[in-house]
Design a protein that fits this description.
The structure holds 2 protein chains of 2 kinds. Chain A is mostly helical. Chain A has 11 helices and no strands. A 6-stranded mixed beta sheet of chain B has the order 6-7-8-3-9-10, sandwiched between helices. A 4-stranded antiparallel beta sheet of chain B has the order 2-1-4-5, with helices on one face. Chain B contains 9 helices and 10 strands. Classes of the chains: A mainly alpha, B alpha/beta.
Chain lengths: 265, 243
């Protein structure tokens, strides 16, 4: 009861600010204009206006492909960094450098460097990709570095006794990794991995700086044509529709895992 | 007859700290040897050296006359013949009881799952946990988990079983069921090297009792000799303390 009352008060207060603030009417007109929101959502081919809704499909395929690639490269880099073989030393060094560098550079700069740099290098097919494909490449490069650390932490979280037991059964290093370590690491890895994927989904918006027409870019075009920013709100709502279910799902997994761990001790 | 396992003046150091100082010991087929001594006396380290979980810094170890120091030896291959059970069970929590037992023979020895299944179920029946075959380890008590860990090693049909204080992490009421299983194994002629704090158990099943103190093998003999008439003062002090 008290929680319902406080919720109504707080939410009502926020709406009231929008209505009562001196600039409230203007904000409503420029950001929450139903007509402009609909117009930007559907676009208008005759006027050369891209649809924010169609643009979002570009965001979706960019993050879907990036996520698959990130899983593969992230695991590969984690694997290399955790290898022991002296032969792999140069690879270990490269993998370490890689994850240090790309966790340290803002994603926007990586997008710009890949999107404008690779075409200039004239490297065969690598210089002939579409703008959205350069976006996928840039996001994959950056997020593989983050995700490799998530994998590494997950693998390290498997208790040492598990390795001792597996080794004393005479299982080989590769079999232990595949049958003992990774299956246990996956459980701890999923929530942080999903968190990284949520930011990856949002960061597809950065590809707009290359001129790829995705949701953000479409909203920008609408804003500069109609001098109305409601398209940005539409794009934000569309992103929320994608990320909120995933955020809720991640929190649910974390809560479930916590309960399980409390129950087992 | 050739000993199953032979330690010859084995030396092991951790960061310059000598944990084993020239330990010599041999173990024959069907023999049960119990290692006794305070925590940190080197019992666990000696066991780990025997299946190459640790590399030694001096001396030699041989398994059926074959030196384990030989660089051509594949440690994974040796470990398939030497079972080891740990204080903390270390069952694989993501696999059910049956798969815990099958993983060694199927993934290590590359035997067909269907061929090993009957053996695994027979082992589970032997420890009275047949109906738990499809349960996950977290559903089992400590004593049950440890018994599963023991048959997981047995499923590899090892020539030698190493047991590292397997009852030390157990609730006192659950120690009995694990020791009963070990007694059963001893009567059936399983070759075992057991590090233990259970003196009555050692006295009952061991053919040979070895007292380690600070990495040195102080004294060895039949249970009778060690427990009723120890030669060394340090053995007497230790036995009085644990009694």
């Amino acid at each position: 009861m008290a929680s319902a009352l406080s919720s109504v008060l707080i939410l009502g207060g926020l709406v009231a600010v929008l209505y009562l603030a001196p600039g409230g009417a203007q904000v409503r007109f420029f950001f929450f204009n139903p007509h402009a929101m609909w117009a930007s959502f559907v676009g208008n081919a005759n006027l050369g206006l891209s649809s924010v809704g169609v643009g979002l499909l570009t965001n979706i395929w960019m993050f879907l492909i990036s996520e698959v690639l990130v899983l593969i490269f992230g695991l590969l880099i984690a694997w290399i960094r955790m290898s022991r073989s002296p032969v792999l030393f140069p690879f270990r060094l490269l993998a370490t450098l890689y994850s240090d560098i790309f966790r340290g550079i803002p994603v926007l700069l990586v997008v710009l460097m890949v999107g404008f740099g690779l075409p200039a290098l004239q490297l065969g097919f690598l210089s002939k990709l579409s703008l959205a494909e350069y976006g996928v490449l840039a996001l994959t490069i950056t997020y593989s570095a983050y995700v490799s650390e998530v994998f590494r932490a997950g693998i390290n979280s498997v208790p040492h006794g598990q390795l001792l037991a597996a080794r004393s059964l005479g299982l080989t290093h590769a079999t232990i990794m595949r049958r003992v370590t990774l299956p246990q690491a996956v459980r701890t890895v999923i929530p942080p991995l999903l968190n990284d994927f949520i930011s990856l989904q949002k960061d597809t918006a950065l590809v707009s700086v290359l001129g790829a027409v995705e949701a953000t870019r479409a909203a920008q075009i609408y804003a500069s044509t109609d001098f109305n920013f409601s398209g940005y709100v539409v794009a934000s709502l569309l992103f929320l529709a994608l990320t909120i279910p995933m955020t809720r799902f991640t929190d649910h997994l974390i809560a479930r895992d916590r309960i399980r761990r409390l129950a087992s001790t | 007859m050739e000993p199953v396992l032979e330690f010859n003046s084995v030396v092991k150091r951790f960061d310059g700290n000598e944990v084993l100082r020239g330990v010599s010991l041999s173990l024959h087929k069907h023999e049960v040897v119990c290692l006794i001594g305070a925590s940190g006396s080197g019992k666990s380290t000696l066991l780990r050296c025997a299946n190459l979980l640790e590399t030694i810094d001096g001396g030699s170890i041989s398994f059926f006359g074959q030196s384990l120091l030989d660089e051509r030896i594949d440690p994974d291959l040796v470990r398939r013949h030497v079972g080891m059970v740990f204080q903390s069970f270390n069952l694989f929590p993501h696999l059910n009881v049956l798969d815990n037992i099958l993983i060694g023979p199927v993934r290590g020895l590359r035997r067909k799952r269907a061929d090993v299944l009957d053996e695994a179920m027979a082992l589970l029946s032997r420890i009275g946990l047949r109906e738990h075959a499809l349960h996950f380890p977290d559903r089992l008590s400590g004593g049950q988990q440890q018994r599963v860990a023991i048959v997981r090693s047995l499923a590899m049909q090892p020539s030698l079983l190493l047991l590292d204080e397997v009852t030390s992490a157990l609730d006192p009421t659950l120690v009995g069921e694990v020791l009963d299983l070990l007694r059963d194994l001893a009567h059936n002629g399983t070759t075992m090297l057991i590090a233990t704090h259970e003196m009555n158990f050692a006295r009952e099943v061991a053919h040979q009792v070895v007292f380690l103190d600070n990495g040195v093998l102080v004294e060895r003999g039949t249970p009778e000799e060690i427990f009723t008439n120890p030669e060394h003062a340090s053995t007497r002090t230790f036995l009085e303390r644990v009694r």
